[in-house]
Write a structure and sequence with these properties.
Blueprint: E1 19-24, E2 29-41, E3 44-57, E4 59-65, E5 73-76, E6 81-84, E7 87-96, E8 99-107, E9 110-114, E10 118-121, E11 127-130, E12 133-143, E13 148-158, E14 161-167, E15 171-179, E16 182-185, E17 196-204, E18 210-213, H1 240-249, H2 252-255, H3 260-270, E19 283-284, E20 288-293, E21 318-325, E22 331-336, E23 346-350, E24 359-362, E25 373-378, E26 384-390, E27 396-403, E28 415-416, E29 427-437, H4 439-448, E30 452-453, H5 459-468, E31 478-484, E32 495-497, E33 521-524, E34 530-533, E35 537-544, E36 552-554, E37 565-575, H6 577-586, E38 590-591, H7 597-608, E39 621-630, E40 633-636, E41 658-662, E42 672-675, E43 681-688, E44 702-703, H8 705-713, E45 716-717, E46 732-733, H9 735-743, E47 746-747
Parallel strand pairs: 19-21, 31-35
Antiparallel strand pairs: 1-4, 2-3, 2-17, 3-6, 4-5, 5-10, 6-9, 7-8, 8-12, 9-12, 11-14, 12-13, 14-15, 15-18, 16-17, 20-27, 21-26, 22-25, 22-27, 23-24, 23-26, 28-29, 29-35, 30-35, 31-32, 31-33, 33-34, 36-37, 37-43, 38-43, 39-40, 39-41, 41-42, 44-47, 45-46
């Protein structure tokens, strides 16, 4: 069944004051389309034209009157369409002393859509000539010696349409079709400066025709049963006039069942709202692919969390419809509009109406036209609510529900490639370098963390890194251990691992390495492919030979800290700030209070720079921290006010009452953002109170020779600000302090 682009208002559907007469263009018909391009510049106006024979299609409807033969008047309905296939056209333009400019236009299929209802008398021969206004839409690529530029054709033009009707007792044929020329502007960037161009399209229909039934009365199944805007097993629907119109397009809607395709037609043709416009009336689905439409819908779901929002449209998400799925088995629920929706979709999955999202996807990289796909972990028998919407636009398509394998979720800053799964037992993490850094700086960072820039020795290791320690381009490319020896033959000579492991496996991107601009260092893309690049990196892929135990760290007195222990937490499910606060308290701590710039920088280096702590989306959200605004004042969970600003430039900007790390499209950044109560993320930082361990001066939870050395180094009277080795508090480091330290020798309790 083909779907019409426009809608027919309910006011146009009185009980058979006119006879519904839907039309379509039978398959296998062709027309001649002639396109003229008119250019205007300082030298005046010129034109060139070319023609092509293309397939012809379309559908729409008429309203005929009186209520039976002979019909004397036809009302052609808004939304009726005529479609013309595309092709390549050649023009000679801007001709002058030195010849003409060749211009090629690759025109997609174009659709002429009637803008408003228009009526005409049917004269004795059956002829009806309508004064019509059409919108012509499509896309094209214009190629000249100056440039190649895509463009969108979206123009409204007056173009009379005519047909000669032949009626029998049940239907009609429209022949001798005519339409006036439709004219609009071309993208000026395709032509030299100072030149404007218009495109004029005319059609020779030849012997083509339109055809369809007419309904003096509704089919027997119309006027009874369930609503027209909801799928049901029986044929027909309760609105007789709308039912008759839909069944003119698809007779199965009145003979077999009123399925999702029938609903889409009813929504489009009769200006209805689909029944699953609201979360509370979500349409139940099983496994399979189902037509849907968002036409005539409103927006009833909660604002998108930042992880799910598209910065290109300011997070705008509108005109949503809802589906409900109860999977019969546990595993992964795969949901997709990928390449089978006619508009830019976004998918969000919830457990309850108004709840925190379980998963979301927008503009998947392998899907065309901004369509989407995701796999969410699922449990047999539980309810999953699927929300599909657009970005200020509506449209139609198909949603596919199936079983799938959900991607494993990171639970820590680094992830292990287990030996039991064919791995090497090593751990991997992506670490943001906070700016353009050299390879040596990236290497030093990796070594300071206890690892080294990663080496990748097999396709299996490459696939593990791609899926579990995914490299990124946010904030700059990701370095790994691949370098080119100085003086090597370019572009492919001398490549090897920085730690001198043998290079037995490569995964270069197509056309790489190519040494454009002196590229002697390797970078790894999110898809796992390699490229040679310059010596400037935003991230580094770090490999550890054993568990680096990164998730909990103590900020020791020896490094200027406060002796407290901090933990980076990555949860299975997304949580709001209030939920994160409750979780931190359930663990015996609280969301971190970052009271100084020194603490901010230490936390960023130790925890927050790991990309597993971030959503790594357009609105790149980092972990929750213990900062909230109460009674108009920002205050830490410790109770302290904000004295040393932790905010990113321009923040706080009034967008919410709770604090979190934020990076935008630049990757992780060492600063905070204010955000709204409904926002959610999987990561948070917990701060634990320090436990007393007299003598543990370096805060490594062991009283040892290192602590003894610190005490002896401070022997004597303390400085005015005190000294950490003054264990008895008498402002003198002496034998009594030494005794206390020796009494605690060994591991702290």
């Amino acid at each position: 069944m083909m779907l019409i682009a426009g809608v027919l208002g309910t006011a146009a559907l009185p009980a058979f004051a006119e006879v519904p007469a839907p039309y379509n263009v039978a398959a296998g018909q062709f027309v001649t389309v002639t396109v003229r391009i008119i250019t205007t510049n300082s030298s005046g106006e010129q034109f060139s034209e070319d023609s092509m024979v293309v397939p012809f299609g379309g559908l729409g409807s008429f309203g005929l009157s009186p209520n039976g033969l002979p019909f004397t008047f036809a009302d052609m309905k808004a939304g009726s369409t005529l479609r013309f296939g595309g092709g390549v056209l050649d023009f000679q333009l801007l001709c002058g002393l030195f010849g003409c400019v060749p211009v090629t236009v690759n025109l997609s299929e174009t659709t002429a859509t009637l803008v408003a209802n228009t009526g005409a008398s049917i004269v004795g021969s059956g002829r009806a000539d309508f004064g019509t206004t059409w919108n012509l839409s499509g896309t094209y690529v214009t190629t000249t010696p100056f440039s190649s530029s895509p463009g969108t054709l979206n123009t409204t033009s007056v173009a009379p349409f005519g047909t000669t009707f032949t009626f029998d007792n049940t239907g009609f044929i429209g022949q001798q079709l005519t339409i006036g020329s439709i004219e609009g502007d071309l993208d000026a960037s395709s032509f030299p400066p100072g030149t404007t161009a218009r495109i004029r399209t005319s059609v020779n229909f030849g012997n083509t025709s339109i055809q369809g039934p007419y309904f003096v009365g509704p089919p027997p199944s119309c006027g009874t049963g369930d609503p027209c805007n909801a799928p049901h097993a029986s044929a027909g629907c309760s609105n007789s006039a709308c039912c008759a119109l839909v069944c003119g397009f698809d007779p199965a809607c009145c003979s077999t069942q009123w399925d999702s395709l029938c609903v889409n037609l009813a929504v489009q043709q009769c200006a209805l709202t689909p029944e699953n416009d609201q979360c509370t009336s979500a349409r139940p689905l099983g496994f399979g692919r189902y037509p849907f439409t968002t036409l005539n819908t409103d927006t009833d779901g909660p604002p998108l969390i930042t992880e799910c929002a598209d910065p290109a449209v300011g997070g705008n998400y509108t005109n949503d419809v809802w589906f409900r799925v109860v999977p019969p088995v546990s595993g992964g629920l795969a949901i997709s509009t990928c390449n089978h929706a006619g508009f830019d979709t976004s998918i969000v999955v919830y457990g309850t109406c108004g709840g925190v999202p379980l998963a979301c996807n927008d503009n998947d990289s392998v899907c065309n036209g901004g369509t989407s796909r995701l796999v969410v972990p699922c449990i047999a028998g539980e309810l999953y609510l699927i929300r599909v919407g657009g970005k200020g636009v509506t449209g139609s398509g198909e949603i596919d529900i199936a079983l799938g394998d959900p991607a494993p979720l990171a639970s820590g800053l680094a992830v292990e490639w287990p030996v039991a799964q064919g791995g090497n037992g090593h751990w991997y993490a992506v670490y943001a370098l906070d700016g353009a850094r050299t390879f040596e700086e990236a290497k030093e960072t990796a070594m300071a963390l206890g690892g080294y820039p990663a080496t990748i020795g097999s396709a299996a290791e490459s696939e593990f890194v791609r899926t579990r320690a995914t490299p990124t381009l946010q904030g700059g490319p990701t370095a790994f251990g691949l370098i080119q020896a100085p003086g090597s033959a370019e572009p492919a000579g001398g490549w090897g691992w920085a730690n001198n492991e043998p290079l037995n496996f490569t995964n270069w991107n197509a056309g790489e390495p190519n040494n454009v601009g002196g590229e002697d260092w390797g970078v790894i893309y999110p898809n796992g492919k390699w490229n040679d690049d310059r010596n400037a990196f935003g991230n580094v892929l770090v490999e550890f030979n054993s568990n680096p135990n990164l998730d909990s760290q103590t900020w020791s007195f020896a490094e200027g800290g406060n002796g407290r222990t901090y933990t980076a937490v990555i949860l299975e499910s997304r949580v709001t700030w209030l939920q994160a606060k409750a979780y931190a308290e359930s663990q015996g701590g609280q969301l971190v209070s970052i009271e100084t710039q020194a603490e901010l920088q230490w936390l960023f280096r130790r925890f927050v720079s790991f990309t597993n702590m971030w959503s790594m989306t357009g609105y790149n959200g980092g972990p929750w921290v213990g900062l909230s605004r109460e009674t108009g004042e920002w205050r830490w969970q410790s109770g302290e006010p904000v004295t040393e600003s932790p905010w990113l430039p321009g923040e706080p900007n009034g967008s919410g009452e709770f604090g979190c790390f934020y990076g935008g499209g630049d990757g992780p950044l060492p600063g905070l953002d204010d955000t709204f109560a409904g926002n959610a993320r999987r990561t948070l930082l917990i701060e634990f109170p320090s436990a007393a361990c007299i003598g543990d001066l370096d805060q490594d939870r062991i009283v040892s020779g290192a602590d003894l050395g610190l005490l002896l180094g401070q022997w004597g009277p303390c400085a005015p600000k005190g000294c950490i080795a003054d264990l008895d508090g008498d402002q003198v480091v002496s034998g009594s302090d030494l005794g206390l330290l020796l009494g605690q020798w060994g591991a702290c309790p």
